[in-house]
Every structure is written in structure tokens, then in C-alpha cells.
Write a structure and sequence with these properties.
With 102 residues, the protein is an alpha/beta fold. It has one domain (2-99): HAD superfamily/HAD-like (Rossmann fold). Helices cover 37% and strands 10% of the residues. The protein has a three-stranded parallel beta sheet. The protein is globular, with a radius of gyration of 14 Å.
Length: 102
Amino acid sequence: MADLGIRHVWLGIHDKLAAFQNLLAQLNLSADQAAYTGDDLIDLAVMNRAGLAIAVQDADPFVKQHAHWQTPSRGGRGAVREVCELLLEARGQLAAARERYL
């Protein structure tokens, strides 16, 4: 994660809502300003609070019902990239990000 410049990482978390609220507090953000991607029932508490709830294509069907958007790809098969591109595009930064690598 450090190689990717990702500063906030929690692994093995059972209480995802507490971790989400902790991150929001650290970054001085509201839940409406956050996106969250999930695939299973344990993710629903956060998905129901995040401003943008995303489910991967192969998420549990019940979880998909609570998502604002679903990735075209399955988890582990390009879904994270699709989420990143969605967020970059929403911020008007996707073209510039692609240009960096030409």
C-alpha cells in the first residue's frame, strides 16, 4: 500500500463501521463525502452510511440492492480499477491521470 501512496489501511477489521467512522474523523469528512466498496453482508453497515455505496459485480445479491453503483467486473478482476476510474472521472482527473503514463 505504501508503494501506491495509500496512507490509511486497516486489515483484518471486524467492526468496519467503527473503522469507517475513525477514518472520517481523521480526515474531517462526513459520511456523505465518502465512497465505500463492498461485497458481503459485513459491508452493509458502512454502505448504508456512505455517500456512494458501491458493490462489486459478484457481490451478494442482497448487498447489491443497497449499492448506488455496481462495478462491471468481479472482485479481484478489475473492480478496484473501475472504482478508481469512476472517482477520478467524477473529479475531472481521469484524463490527466492517463496522460501521466503516455
